[in-house]
């Protein structure tokens, strides 16, 4: 939600607006000089996500749910128990939000890998890249290529395939 779904939807909606602006003349609207500012949408998107984070955390606190940050694992204790950084917690209901981090190959595995970024890095971009290459054909890759292309980045989508389908 914080680093994928919600910020991606904001960017998707931004691209939808770009498409609408592009088509305005076909519907009789004159829109000369319309400019897109990446910095503006980045700042507004990031502020929106932080606001949502605060709302979620406040709702969790109102529900009297403890948030314990760190690396945890279930123990073999008879009651539901987790251990987080050496300290044990027991409760009738335990939720572990696993999160995740992408696995990035090294340059020795794939020459030039360090020149790329993951989808998380997309949200850190300070400006719209003039050109972009998206590696992969999953829905995230296709969405990112579409968003970047619609907003003005010359985008290419690389798909690994043993044969042409």
From TrEMBL:
This protein's GO cellular component annotations are:
cytosol; mitochondrion
GO BP annotations, alphabetical order:
cell redox homeostasis; cellular response to oxidative stress; glutathione metabolic process
InterPro entries (UniProt xref): FAD/NAD-bd_sf (IPR036188), FAD/NAD-binding_dom (IPR023753), GSHR/TRXR-like (IPR046952)
Q: Where is the signal peptide?
A: none
Q: Does the keyword Membrane apply?
A: no
Major place of residence: cytoplasm
Question: What GO MF annotations does this protein's record show?
Answer: flavin adenine dinucleotide binding; glutathione-disulfide reductase (NADPH) activity
The cofactor(s) it depends on are: FAD
> Which SUPFAM superfamilies did the record assign?
FAD/NAD(P)-binding domain
| Cell location | Cytoplasm; Mitochondrion
Keyword annotations of the record = Cytoplasm, Disulfide bond, Mitochondrion, NADP, Oxidoreductase, Redox-active center
* All copies of domain FAD/NAD(P)-binding, residue ranges: 1-164
Kindly state which reaction or reactions the protein catalyses: 2 glutathione + NADP(+) = glutathione disulfide + NADPH + H(+)
Q: Give the highest taxon in the source lineage.
A: Eukaryota
The similarity comment for this entry is: Belongs to the class-I pyridine nucleotide-disulfide oxidoreductase family.
Query: Which protein is depicted?
Result: GSHR protein
Gene source species: Erpornis zantholeuca
């Amino acid at each position: 939600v914080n680093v994928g779904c919600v910020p991606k939807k904001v960017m998707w909606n931004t691209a939808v607006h770009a498409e609408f602006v592009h088509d305005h003349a076909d519907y009789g609207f004159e829109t000369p000089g319309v400019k897109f500012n990446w910095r503006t949408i980045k700042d507004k998107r990031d502020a929106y996500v932080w606001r949502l984070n605060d709302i979620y955390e406040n709702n969790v606190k109102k529900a009297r749910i403890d948030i314990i940050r760190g690396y945890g694992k279930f123990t073999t204790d008879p009651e539901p128990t987790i251990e987080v950084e050496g300290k044990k917690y027991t409760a009738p209901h335990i939720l572990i939000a696993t999160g995740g981090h992408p696995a990035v190959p090294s340059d020795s595995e794939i020459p030039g890998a360090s020149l790329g970024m993951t989808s998380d890095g997309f949200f850190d971009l300070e400006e719209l890249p003039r050109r972009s290459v998206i590696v992969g054909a999953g829905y995230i890759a296709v969405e990112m290529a579409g968003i970047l292309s619609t907003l003005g980045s010359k985008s290419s989508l690389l798909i690994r395939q043993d044969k042409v389908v």
